[in-house]
Automatic annotation (TrEMBL):
Species, as recorded: Paenibacillus agri
The keyword Hydrolase belongs to this UniProt entry's keyword annotation: no
Protein name: Cytochrome C oxidase subunit IV family protein
Family, as annotated: Belongs to the cytochrome c oxidase bacterial subunit 4 family.
Bilayer topology annotation: Multi-pass membrane protein
Biological processes, Gene Ontology terms: aerobic electron transport chain; electron transport coupled proton transport
GO CC terms of this entry: cytochrome o ubiquinol oxidase complex; plasma membrane
Length: 107
C-alpha cells in the first residue's frame, strides 16, 4: 500500500510504501525457528561437538543479519552510514581478536 503526504498547497510531497506487519511476523517466526534449531542442537546429546559449534555459529550469523536487516531497518534506504560504521567496527574487533589469539599462541 502506498501513502501520499499532502503539502499545504495540496500537492504530493513524498510517496512511501507502508510495510505492514506481514514481514515482521515472518521474520519473527524465522528468528524463533533459528533459535529452536540452535537449542535443539545443544539439547540433543548425540550431536558431535564440533558440528554443534559450527551450527551455532551459522545460526548466530543468520540471526544477526535478520535482526539488523529487519528489526533495526538497515535494509531501508538512507542507512549506509550506520552500515559502514558497523563494518568498520567488525573489522576492528576481528583484527583485535585475531591479534590477541596470535599473541597468546605465539611461540
Amino acid at each position: 500500500m502506498t501513502t501520499d503526504q499532502q503539502t499545504p498547497q495540496g500537492g504530493v510531497k513524498h510517496r512511501y510504501r507502508h510495510e505492514g506487519p506481514q514481514k515482521h511476523i515472518v521474520v519473527f517466526i524465522f528468528s524463533i525457528v533459528l533459535t529452536l534449531i540452535a537449542f535443539a542442537a545443544v539439547a540433543a546429546g548425540g550431536v558431535n561437538a564440533s558440528f554443534a559449534v559450527i551450527l551455532l555459529l551459522v545460526m548466530a550469523v543468520l540471526q544477526v543479519f535478520v535482526q539488523m536487516g529487519y528489526w533495526m531497518h538497515l535494509k531501508d534506504k538512507g542507512h549506509m552510514l550506520p552500515i559502514l560504521f558497523m563494518i568498520g567496527g567488525f573489522f576492528v574487533a576481528g583484527t583485535c581478536i585475531i591479534m590477541s589469539l596470535y599473541w597468546v599462541w605465539w611461540d
